[in-house]
Amino acid sequence: CIRDRVMLHYKIRRLTDKDYSGIPEMLSRLPQWRAGIASSYRLPVDTLQSGAAFLLLEELCREKAGIEQIPEFALSPNGKPYFRELPRLHFNMSHCRDAVMCVISDMPAGCDIEPIPECINEDVMTLIFTREENTAIITSSCPEVMFAQTWTRIEAAAKMLDVPLDSHLLKKWRKKFAGAIFTDKEDTFVYSLVSYSDIMDKL
């Protein structure tokens, strides 16, 4: 489905076993430059996710921005893709084994989608999460879901700000705007998204 927020549009598409058998057809629908990227992956799951996320972004840009053909991506110094030819249109993509996701906005935005894990990753909690975040996870009635929610919020914020996950700036700011990051849960995955317009009054 498509859900709208102020200055922010996003879309999620589930991946099924049928999609894997349709990888050749999917690749034929991609522009040559993107098909080359998707085909370069060794595992079919990575090819599928790369291609499906692009097609979803293309669909969202057509429906919400009136853009029929999106241009080739450029990359920031930190590796975040952006449209050099469309500087006023910001986007972000994410994918996991069960679904792909994309977001477009007229301000910097980020999104992340992750499967609900069978157990929490203590290394991530030690290296990335704050003490307050770890406490919330450990004391939660469902630590695995809380872990995934926390992880996607951090990823979405890092991608919006275009900074590494261990950035001091990210740790400093995310306490202030954590509540502004939209997070939701489906049966097997969790996702988060945020636009700079959501957090600018909290910094």
Provide the fold topology.
Elements: E1 2-5, E2 8-14, H1 17-21, H2 23-28, H3 32-39, H4 44-65, E3 74-75, E4 81-82, E5 90-95, E6 99-105, E7 109-115, H5 122-127, H6 131-138, H7 143-161, H8 168-177, E8 182-185, E9 189-195, H9 196-199
List its traits.
203 residues; alpha+beta; four-stranded antiparallel sheet; three-stranded antiparallel sheet; 9 strands; disordered N terminus
Explain what this protein looks like in three dimensions.
By secondary structure, this protein is of the alpha+beta class. It contains 9 helices and 9 strands. The strands form 3 sheets. Strands 1-2-6-5 form a 4-stranded antiparallel beta sheet, covered by helices on one side. A hairpin with a 5-residue loop joins strand 3 (74-75) and strand 4. Helix 3 (32-39) packs antiparallel against helix 4 and helix 6 (131-138) runs antiparallel to helix 7 (143-161). The longest helix has 22 residues, at 44-65.
In short:
This protein is of the alpha+beta class and 203 residues long. It is 43% helix and 23% strand.
